[in-house]
Design a protein that fits this description.
This protein is mainly beta and 207 residues long. The protein is built from no helices and 16 strands.
Length: 207
């Protein structure tokens, strides 16, 4: 399923989307805002979902499990991190579960505020032999895409039994994590990096 659009894109109450490759691909032009709500993306031969826009993305009640690459991968245009392309702006993920995807369960390259609330991300990289990019439970990078620098907020998450790092965040602004359980991950259970050029701190609490 590969829609292309230059306006808002919304998918609500979507059933499971297995096919020969990506479960869902969205290339949305610069005005587009993407919403996925109550969507299952399971058992695909590539990413569960590959979402690309320069505007906002919201995921609510999304499940992505046992995909052969990423559970959900969010990028900007043209999607090559090396050329510092403009990333997706203002990414929000709510009430969502990612389980057993072969590479990262949830990977976000953003150009603005990233907000995560009530996330479960478990067993990344556990479904097959390890031979690709390192399978994080949660990867967020909003540091490298432009001068539009915004915080990262993660509130309420269970991150466990992922092959490599549980949580890996790179930002030039304040990183706040609260109420996270990160256990049984193969490397760092939580790696928070904001020592690039910019300002901000790191706040960690159990609440």
């Amino acid at each position: 399923f590969s829609p292309g659009n230059r306006g808002s894109i919304s998918h609500q109450d979507y059933p499971d989307l297995p096919d020969n490759g990506y479960g869902l691909v969205m290339y949305a032009g610069s005005p587009a805002i993407v919403l996925l709500e109550n969507v299952s993306l399971n058992g695909n031969d590539s990413d569960g979902a590959f979402l690309r826009t320069t505007k906002g993305i919201t995921l609510n009640m999304v499940t992505a499990s046992l995909n052969d690459l990423f559970g959900v991968r969010i990028e900007g245009f043209p999607g090559n991190v090396d050329n510092r392309a403009v990333g997706a702006k203002n990414v929000t993920v709510l009430n969502s579960t990612f389980d057993g995807n072969y590479e990262a369960n949830l990977s976000i390259r953003a150009n603005g505020l990233v907000t995560i609330r009530k996330l479960t991300s478990i067993n990344a990289g556990r479904s097959g032999p390890f031979n690709g990019p390192l399978p994080y439970g949660l990867y967020i990078n909003n540091a490298y895409f432009s001068s539009y620098q915004q915080p990262v907020n993660i509130q309420g998450a269970v991150i466990s039994n992922n092959y490599y790092k549980g949580v890996y965040v790179i930002s030039k602004r304040t990183i706040t994590v609260a109420g996270i359980v990160s256990v049984g991950n193969g490397a760092n259970w939580m790696y928070l990096k904001n020592d690039e050029e910019g300002s901000g701190g790191v706040n960690v609490s159990s609440l």
